[in-house]
Structure formats: structure tokens, C-alpha cells
Amino acid sequence: MAGTATSTPEYAIEVNDVTMIFNMASEQLNNLKEYFIKIMRHELFFSEFRALKHISFKVRRGEVVGLVGTNGSGKSTMLKIIAGVLEASEGECIVRGNIAPLIELGAGFDMELTARENIYLNGALLGYTKQFIDDHFDEIVEFAELRDFVDMPLKNYSSGMVARIAFAIATVTEPDILIVDETLSVGDVFFQQKCEDRIQHFIKNGDVTVLFVSHSIEQVERICQRAIWIEKGDLRMDGPVAEVCEAYRGQFG
Amino acid sequence: MAVAIKSQSAAHARTEMEKDLFILQQLVTKDFKIRYRRSVLGVAWSVLNPLLMMIVMAIVFSTIFAQGRNGSITPEMYPLYLIVGNITFTLMSESTSSALTSIIDASSLLKKVKVHRFVFPVQKALFSLVNFAFSLVAVALVMLWFRVVPTWHLIWLPVVLILLVTFCMGLGLLLSALTVFFRDIRHLWSVVITAWTYFTPIFWTTDFIAQMPRILQLVMYANPMYNYLQFMRDIFLFQTNPTAFTLGMCAFWAVLAIVAGYLVFHKTEHKFILYI
């Protein structure tokens, strides 16, 4: 998928009129029998669900944006489209730069392998070179504070320890775009602080674009400059973090 | 439509190709480590397994079902005939059976990280090829035991392996894509593999084909696995060049499988995430 570098490069993420439609009927099909029954009944192409409706926004390079919305409002769908794992039904999403996805830390880890082996496997999946992982291996292990356990299979790790390794790999290099989705809720309070410090460090450097999703509205207010409120697939509000969070809280009051 | 523009930095692979190759290498290594973790003999099983299978089949088809072996294959040649046929067929059955669920198994990853989806089924074919390479040690041992001297015809080996692995990759792509939408294929394929095992001259000798009804003969000669096995036995056992027919059929099936696999996979892969 090639894009044109000519269009306004100051934006790291451009979401243009994105609509995501899920086909409720075909979602439930898992075998041939059901498929043919549906075809016979002409039911296959009905009951659509629109998870996102004509969403448009742009994120400048270096901006820190929080996504807020109640459960099932379409936040995760939006993130998946930006991360490139889900294709929008309509509209387009332009992303400039490397994405470090922290959506559910540790995706792609194999629990049978040791931490060392997983660092290489996960590094490959994130697009690092072997040379780069060799050079930064110690740095990753130091940050995760798991030096003594590096040759132990991951199945013997606690979920907090797995999260440490995953966070350390994903942020060992400064990414162009960092997607943070509820990741800071795992791990103990000290490691949470360490992760937030690293994210803050990226933000202060000014080159990293951060997309932040959290149910903790205080955390969004603390970290982000701008917030986007998505509700039931509609873009409800987009503006300075204080205003949006105020309005978001207001709906419950 | 998503448009991604990669920025250049030393940390990341310079090209998509470089990234995919590193992923493939890591995944093959992973499968290999997991297969032999906590086994006493470890990688030696890759050599032992085909040898033991050969011994079992040789005993069964020299005693209970002795009529399966007749004509051109002498008793001394029969073990070599068995092992070459068996490891070749195993390469196909193992790679397609594991490729079948490769996309579903990688679902947690595919939902979160942007990776080329084809690496998962393709990796399974490469992993089976690595196992095949170990099985060749077993073949060498059998040849040594029966004092069969290899000839220069073995230079054909890379050719037949490229064709066979291409065939397996094509089938793997096709099956992995279809299985995402229809989980039934997983159950169906094990039956297909069993049927295919019996319809391919792995343990019975090719002389039987001449005695078959005309229509069944055509099916046999068109069978891709018959042709790949024939190619392997030509260079290992009969020590001749493959016939133009064998070579042509092997190439035909490889191209057909990879084209069909690529087309189906490419056309459906953007919908995978909705079904996994």
C-alpha cells in the first residue's frame, strides 16, 4: 500500500470520512451448512451494524490525543483501523511513520518460549532488524527488570511480568506513533509509573504522536492535550482536553 | 482504504521483504524449538521418526499385505522405496495440515499488529521443508545400509523441492484462507489426507496402476503427489532423470496451486479479521 508523500506531511494521522460497517449476519457463520441456509433464505447481506459513521479528524506530528467514549462506542475499532489491522469500509486512513501498538500488550508472545526468544520473535513482528535487537537486548531486559528470568518460559511468568517485557520491547526505540490502549493498568504501581514516565519522555521530545485510550478520564486529562469523544460511532466532540472531558462527564450528570 | 508511509530508521527493517524474512525465520525457529522442547532425543526424532515408520511399513507390507509390493521393486529396494515416498508425502500432509489453522492460530496477533498475513501459512511449508531436510539424513542412512551409491541425478533435488514446496505453499494459502470462513475444512481435510495417502503409491508399488481401469489410471497419473513421489524416486532410487511428463506435471501442479492459493488468499485476506 503506497501513499503519496506530497499531501500535508505535518499530520501523522489523517482519518478522512471513515465508516466501518460490520455485517452481523455473516459474522456468525462458521460452517458451510449455515452459509448455504443463509444463501437460500437470502439473509446473507442484511442486518448491518455501523461501528463508525463518517469519522474525520487529523492528528499533528507530536500531538498527544486521548480517545474517550463509553464501552462499545467504537474507540477500539478506530484504533484498529489506525493500527492497520482493520480495513475501513468507507473513507481512508493515512498514517505516516512507524506505529508501536500497545493494544493489549504481549500479542504474539508464545508462552512456551523463553523471554529471550520472545523478545526476538516480537521484535521481528514489530519490524525491528536482528542487529537492532542484538544491540538493545540488554536495554530491554534492564527496563523490564527481569534479568534473572530471561531464560525462563513465559508460561511461568505472571501477567505483570509479561506486560513489562512487552512494554520494554515496544518502546525500546522511539516510535513515530504510539498507540496506548489501557496498557498502563497492568503491572504494579511502580512499573505503571515507569511506563508513564517513558511515555511522558517521548511526549516531551515532541516527535512522537501519541494516541491514548483509557477509561480513567483523569489519566487522559493528565497526559493529553487534546481529546476526541466518540459515542455510538459518531464523533461527538473534538477539542482541548479540558473542554471535551468536561462535556463527557456532563452526560452522566 | 489504509495508506501507510514508512519512515526510515535504523531500528526498523528497510524493506517489507526484509521484515517478512526475519519474521519467517523467527517463526520457523519457534516451531522447531517448541516441537523438541523437553524431549530427550530432541532433534534426533526428525531422523528417527521416518526410519521407524519405514521399518513398521516394511514389516507390514512384506508379511500381512505382501501383495502390495510386487514386480519391479526388489525386497532390498523396498525400504528405500518406502522411506522416500513417505517423507515426500509427509512434507505435503504436514505442511498443509498445519497451514490450515495457521491464520486462526495467529488471530490474537493479527487483531493487534499489522503483519503480512501470508507469512503464517507460508512459514508452515518452510518448517516442513526443514523437517524434510532432517529426514534426508534417514534416507542417507538407509542408502548406506543397503549399499546404494547415490548418483549425480541428485542434482535434481533442489528442482523437485522448489516445485513441491511451491505446491504446498499454494495449498496452504488456499486452505488457511478458506478455513477462516468455514471451520468445517479442518475436519474435512484430515479425511482428504487419509484418502490421498491410499490413492498415492506410498507403500504399494506403481505396477498396480497398469492393472487399474482406464479412468482410475488417469486419476493416478494426474495425482500431483504421484508425480512428486515419482520424481523423488527417480533421482534417489531408480537413479535416472525424471521423464518430461513427471517434470511437466510437477511444474503444472506447483503453478496451479500457488496461483489459486494466492488469488483466493489475496481476495479474502482483508476480511479475515472479522471472522477470527
From TrEMBL, chain A:
<dbReference type="InterPro" id="IPR003593">
    <property type="entry name" value="AAA+_ATPase"/>
</dbReference>
<keyword id="KW-0067">ATP-binding</keyword>
<feature type="domain" description="ABC transporter">
    <location>
        <begin position="27"/>
        <end position="252"/>
    </location>
</feature>
<dbReference type="GO" id="GO:0016020">
    <property type="term" value="C:membrane"/>
</dbReference>
<keyword id="KW-0813">Transport</keyword>
<dbReference type="InterPro" id="IPR003439">
    <property type="entry name" value="ABC_transporter-like_ATP-bd"/>
</dbReference>
<dbReference type="InterPro" id="IPR027417">
    <property type="entry name" value="P-loop_NTPase"/>
</dbReference>
<keyword id="KW-0547">Nucleotide-binding</keyword>
<dbReference type="GO" id="GO:0005524">
    <property type="term" value="F:ATP binding"/>
</dbReference>
<comment type="similarity">
    <text>Belongs to the ABC transporter superfamily.</text>
</comment>
<dbReference type="GO" id="GO:0140359">
    <property type="term" value="F:ABC-type transporter activity"/>
</dbReference>
<dbReference type="GO" id="GO:0016887">
    <property type="term" value="F:ATP hydrolysis activity"/>
</dbReference>
<dbReference type="Pfam" id="PF00005">
    <property type="entry name" value="ABC_tran"/>
</dbReference>
<protein>
    <submittedName>
        <fullName>Teichoic acid ABC transporter ATP-binding protein</fullName>
    </submittedName>
</protein>
<dbReference type="InterPro" id="IPR015860">
    <property type="entry name" value="ABC_transpr_TagH-like"/>
</dbReference>
<dbReference type="InterPro" id="IPR050683">
    <property type="entry name" value="Bact_Polysacc_Export_ATP-bd"/>
</dbReference>
